[in-house]
């Protein structure tokens, strides 16, 4: 019985993701921070535009971490943590904070979770779009 092992996310992949997200944001006239984590949650790449709000660095990292831990786009999780949602206590249940704002996406290769990207600095829908464009650039 053979099992297929997906190639891990490389630093070159991470740089491709950061560059693509930044290009997408720049085209929209938005300054952002971009974080890429590997499958273990370790930082592979981070970049904050000079003019991006400082908190965007933290939000991009937390969005990536949340997308990785839950293997889901953060945009899909927002309603689940509202006061009447089934996971309303999840944001405060763990030692490491999660962030349920659009802009975080898990990264898959050959059907396996290999990392996550988080974008912060624009409106949540914009950040989600920039992260999606970055994934499209990863071939």
Q: How would you portray this structure in words?
A:
This protein has one domain: Beta-Lactamase. Helix content is 37%, strand content 19%. The chain has helices at residues 11-27, 55-70, 90-93, 124-137; strands at 33-38, 43-48, 104-109, 112-120. With 139 residues, it is an alpha+beta fold. The protein has a four-stranded antiparallel sheet with strand order 2-1-4-3.
The unreliable regions are none
Under CATH at level 1, the class stands as Alpha Beta
CATH third-level topology:
Beta-Lactamase
CATH homology group: Haem-degrading domain
Please, how many helices? Answer: 4
Averaged pLDDT:
93
- Our measurement of the CA-to-CA distance between the termini, rounded to an integer number of angstroms, reads 28 Å
Q: Could you state the order of secondary-structure elements as H and E?
A: HEEHHEEH
The count of strands amounts to: 4
Per the principal axes of the C-alpha atoms, what is the gross shape? Answer: globular
The number of domains is 1
State Rg: 15 Å
Can you lay out the helices and strands and say which pair or pack?
Elements: H1 11-27, E1 33-38, E2 43-48, H2 55-70, H3 90-93, E3 104-109, E4 112-120, H4 124-137
Antiparallel strand pairs: 1-2, 1-4, 3-4
Helix pairs in contact: 1-4
